[in-house]
Amino acid sequence: MTPVGTHPELWGQLLDRAAGRPAAAPTFEADGEAACVFWRLYAGVAAPDHRPFVIGQLGQSLDGRIATPSGHSHYVNGPEAITHLHRLRALVDGVLVGVGTAVADDPRLTVRHVPGRSPARIVIDPRGRLPEDAALLADDGCRVIVVQCANVRRPPRVEPVTVAERGGQIAPRDVVQALAARGVHRLLVEGGAQTVSAFLAAEALDRLHMCVAPILIGSGPTGITLPPIERLNAALRPVAEVVRLGRDVLFDCDLRG
Ligand SMILES: NC(=O)c1ccc[n+]([C@@H]2O[C@H](COP(=O)([O-])OP(=O)(O)OC[C@H]3O[C@@H](n4cnc5c(N)ncnc54)[C@H](OP(=O)(O)O)[C@@H]3O)[C@@H](O)[C@H]2O)c1
């Protein structure tokens, strides 16, 4: 399995494509196979063939856990996988988490490990659980959008987006449409498990990046949970490319089939 590597020139071309700037055709002679893997992994995120485009990601252990029972999740995956996550952030218009992750991890959701600009930060917080001092509310020039289903008062720099509930949940496809109407056409759903699972169950993801780390946590929340099926022939079997990220293995799943 070819490691994905770092390819500064290709990365610059991907950032150009993501920003809509004219970009030279990529050349792969220098690093051969690794450069092709790198390009295939990111080109469809930088310039998807349709919009809105939604990619989900989760990092999990060999036994399918995303955190310990107390919610400690830093870090399941190794440094190359963290860099990969920052690359995804740099290529999209918006990065979205559920309020469970915003409260448990207090993430910044910025791009720090690679060159590139930080996307809009989006939280699904139906009932106003997001603390006013959450790190993702930092005043750094990036948009902050909160998706809610009730009229909740938010700090002045937050753009509230109110989406109607259906059966106690906000339908992920409604979230995607509401964000696209506000200019967020490429969306990364970064976690946690409930949020990514809801988007997957609603067929609102085009791609899913599952990054499996060689660690056994033994107990704690698991990654994807979907409505039960009786027989395996009803299971999702996406076409997947398998890529090495340091010691971790990334399954790049195409869900459009
Ligand atoms: N390993 C990884 O890749 C990774 C990534 C991110 C997070 N994490 C870990 O995951 C854990 C948090 O995940 P989680 O699954 O508990 O929570 P989560 O998915 O981050 O947030 C779930 C909450 O967000 C709101 N929400 C999300 N989608 C909604 C929808 N469609 N409709 C209505 N409400 C919606 C609900 O808030 P209300 O409860 O207010 O209704 C829901 O309870 C933490 O331990 C974190 O460290 C791991």
Automatic annotation (TrEMBL):
Domain Bacterial bifunctional deaminase-reductase C-terminal: 52-234
Entry keyword set: NADP, Oxidoreductase
InterPro entries: DHFR-like_dom_sf, RibDG_C, Riboflavin_Biosynth_HTPR
Coiled-coil segments on the chain, per record: none
Keyword NADP: yes
Pathway(s) served: Cofactor biosynthesis; riboflavin biosynthesis
PANTHER family, sorted: 2,5-DIAMINO-6-RIBOSYLAMINO-4(3H)-PYRIMIDINONE 5'-PHOSPHATE REDUCTASE, DIHYDROFOLATE REDUCTASE FAMILY PROTEIN (AFU_ORTHOLOGUE AFUA_8G06820)
Protein name, UniProt field: RibD family protein
